[in-house]
Every structure is written in C-alpha cells, then in structure tokens.
C-alpha cells in the first residue's frame, strides 16, 4: 500500500478517533526500518490532527529515530532485558542504542509507554525488575509500564513459513505469575505498572 491508500483507511475512522481519543499507530516488525515512509504517514496524520503512535524496539539508527520524534504523540517503547549480555543473547543485538534512543525521546519530551515483554525463566528476574524500576525512577514522566506476558499464539504457524519449532526455553506464564511480577515491581516502588 502507498501512503494515500493507508491514509484513506485511517481517515475512514477519523470520527471514531476523535470520540475515543485514538488515532493512527505504526507497528510491525519495526516500523522505523522504513523511516521515510513512516515519517510521511506520521506527518500526514499530524497535519490532519490525528493522534500518532509508534510501537518500536528502539533499535533504529539515532538520526532516523530522532527525525520521527516531532511527529509522534506516543511511543510504545520495548524494554526486553536490563543486562546488555542478556539482551544480546535474547535478541542478537546490544541494548546500548535502544537505551540511547529511549533517553533521547524522553529528553525531547515525547510521551512514552514502556512495554516490557516478560518470558518466564528468561527475563522474569529480580535483576531485570530492578532495571525496570530504575528506568521508572530515571524517567518519572513516562506514562506507565506494561508487562507483556509471553504467549505462544504464533507457534502453530512456524512450520508453514519455514521456521523451526519454538525453543523449549520459552513457556507461557502460569495464571499467577503476572500478578507476582506486579507485586515484585510494586515492592520495589514501581507503582505505574500493569499487565498489558
């Protein structure tokens, strides 16, 4: 789809956005990997007074990331691991650029919702929860923190697209674990946390 076709879809629901407070969200994959296209859509939405949101991993070249910030009303910003070596192990990349981009967005005054995917046995650790709390303390203006429990909804599709079976390391949380994560973060003084 080109920008005109996408904006036609967005505009079809503009009255709904105005009544609900919603708007246009770019997500993906990583929508900022197509930075020029994303920026065109964001700017067009802003010109029409439509709220803009970008869901991002933050792993985007700093200049490209900075270029979109003036056109973004809300960032849904992923935070997957506190320790750099854990982030490298889980995702294949360092979290250094990600944290730098988070800091840039905060310093520029962007509205940020920190989204923390949590995988039991992988990053549901006291150390990672302390890292989430440290970000909450460092960035007091962030809108909130959403813990995103791991789910395996896509596993059945893996073979049909040539991807190996899911790692046995990954498991869906029990019914009580998300509540325990909230309690752990509340115990650290992190009050604006919820399950997303």
- Which of globular, elongated, flat, extended, rod-shaped describes the shape? globular
Q: Give the C-alpha Rg.
A: 18 Å
Distance between the termini: 29 Å
Major β-sheet, in short?
6 strands, parallel
Give the C-level CATH assignment: Alpha Beta
The topology string of helices and strands comes to HHEHEHEHHEHEHE
What portion of the residues fall into strands of 2 or more residues? 15-25%
Instruction: Compute the average pLDDT.
Output: 93
> Under the CATH scheme, which architecture would be assigned?
Alpha-Beta Barrel
Strand order of the largest sheet: 1-2-3-4-5-6
* CATH topology value: TIM Barrel
Task: Give the helix proportion (percent range).
Answer: 40-55%
């Amino acid at each position: 789809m080109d920008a005109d076709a996408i904006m036609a879809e967005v505009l079809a629901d503009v009255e709904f956005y105005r009544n609900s407070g919603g708007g246009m969200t770019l997500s993906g994959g990583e929508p900022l990997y197509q930075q020029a296209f994303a920026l065109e859509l964001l700017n067009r939405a802003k010109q029409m007074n439509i709220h803009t949101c970008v869901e991002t991993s933050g792993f985007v070249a700093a200049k490209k990331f900075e270029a979109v910030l003036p056109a973004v009303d809300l960032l849904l910003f992923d935070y997957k691991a506190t320790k750099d070596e854990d982030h490298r192990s889980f995702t294949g990349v360092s979290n250094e650029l990600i944290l730098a981009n988070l800091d840039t967005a905060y310093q520029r005054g962007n509205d940020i919702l920190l989204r923390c995917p949590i995988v039991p046995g992988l990053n549901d650790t006291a150390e990672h929860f302390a890292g989430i709390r440290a970000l909450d303390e460092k960035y007091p203006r962030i809108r909130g923190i959403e813990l995103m429990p791991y789910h395996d909804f896509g596993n059945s599709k893996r073979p049909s697209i040539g991807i190996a079976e899911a790692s046995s390391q990954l498991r869906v949380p029990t019914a009580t674990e998300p509540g325990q994560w909230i309690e752990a973060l509340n115990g650290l003084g992190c009050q604006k946390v919820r399950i997303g």
